[in-house]
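Hello, quick one for you while I still have it in my head. A protein chain has come my way and I'm curious about its shape. I'm sending you its amino acid sequence along with the backbone structure tokens. I'd be grateful if you could look everything over and explain what you see. Here's the protein in full, and shout if anything looks odd to you:
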Amino acid sequence: MFIHIIGIVIVLVILLIASMFRVLREYERAVVFFLGRFYGVKGPGLIIIIPFIQQIVRVDLRTIVLDVPTQDLITRDNVSVKVNAVVYFRVLDPKMAINNVENYLEATSQLSQTTLRSVLGQHELDELLSEREELNRDLQLILDQHTDNWGIKIANVEIKHVDLDESMVRALAKQAEAERTRRAKVIHATGELEASAKLREAAEVLNKAPNAIQLRYMQTLTEVANERTTTIVFPMPVDLVDKITDPIKATLNEAAINKAMKVDD
């Protein structure tokens, strides 16, 4: 009987000694409490804990990916949308993360949900769709300020999806189509304006060189003649006709004068 008691005591002592040693990974820290009071932060590696007197709480220092559930919100222009996001954070101070908040993971999740609704509800729908980077920065700064007392650092916040109902999707499609039509008309009008300016410059050049317009007409006639057409109607300007007929008239007048002088002789 005495031998059994000694054996039990030895086993208990071995178990007690074994429970004194804990091994923490590189990304883990142990918040140690001594009779309920904060004692310190230990780790990583091998640490020694006094059983029944000291207790530890393990804290993971790696970046945690928190998926924020879909939130229903109304934008500033009274559009109902559903938005979800993802938050990346990590524990910087294990002491504050354990002592200042009951469950830092749940607290960060709830804070992310309420902040997402309050911040995005202050913006219009167009801003939610086109200015996501700026909204992500605003959410990250606000969450980081609130979690600073918990020893938590918000590394990044990303808005994942902005879901709209079908009627709003159709309205946005019509708006986009109208915008494309407007841009096409503006581009066409700009092209017409530039073309008219170039035509005016060309007209000024032709006015300075009268013979150039004759060459231009001859070139146009050549181009039209190469096409498969049987009849060509080509307008001739009056000044060009005059330039062609004036030398002929002058020649005829000179010949008539010479003839008359011969008759008188």
The chain has eight helices and eight strands. The helical segments are 2-19, 94-99, 104-120, 125-130, 132-147, 166-208, 210-225, 238-264. The mean pLDDT is 81. The longest helix spans residues 166-208.
